[in-house]
Amino acid sequence: MLPIGALGAEKGRNSDVPIESPPTLKSGLHQGDIMRKLLVAATILAVFTAGSAFAKTVRIGVTPGPHAQIMEKVKEVAGKNGLELDIQEFSDYVIPNMALADGALEANSFQHKPYLDNQVADRGFDIVSVAETVNFPMGLYSKKLKNISELADGATIAIPNDPTNGGRALLVLAENGIIKLDPSKGLKVSALDIVENPKNLKFVELDAAQLPRSMEDVDAAVINTNYAMEAGLNPATDPLVREGEKAPYINILVVRTADKDADWVKTLISSYHSGEVKEFIATTFKGSVIPAW
């Protein structure tokens, strides 16, 4: 009988199946050379995939002026994080939500929460806020008046014609003692809810984007900051009166409800809420636009 150790050797000698030798490196390559080549290949792959971390380019709707300017900076930061943005500008407040709900956009950034809530209630859009962005305090502007005390009896004031911003404009006037509104209406007020109008002011409702041009024809106009800046006005110094920094009117980033937890949404939010974007807002707008994070 053979010893146990010899049995394996004897089996190896007599078996029809050859015993394999350890693999050898060919072409004069050593293990270190192969590891270096694999490392280089992995690095190249990482470079190519980092620039396209997400499969699609995100189309995001904004209004002209500050929203568009800020989003250009967000695009720069997002690009470093592997997310490509396609910024599309809209000249009114209605189409961006329609385009988002219909799938023509992946996101938009132009509105505050009360406006979104009103749009969802009226039109049934399946879209949702995912982050706060900036605050644009509304102001009362005039080319004819230097001080609010000059507002004459029977003067005409232009306000936005959409219910949310129209009500917001009236609240600005009420906050500054120019009119008094029915307190039971909260944020949902209209000209019908004015309970005291000591100067017998007349109100004209116009598309928000047209309000800066209307100043030639009215005594004053309550204008959203983005449209005021687009018209060359300074929202920090030009208004006769200015809205306080109220949380309900902070602007928001909006996506379809089905996308709210998507990875690209998280990257978009973190890019917007970056220190680079906050610094850009501070240096570019000098108090006219206020970061909300």
UniProtKB/TrEMBL annotation:
CDD domains: PBP2_lipoprotein_IlpA_like. Keywords: Lipoprotein, Membrane, Palmitate, Signal. Coiled coil: none annotated. Its main location: membrane. InterPro entries: Lipoprotein_NlpA. NCBIfam families: MetQ/NlpA family lipoprotein. Belongs to the nlpA lipoprotein family. This is Lipoprotein.
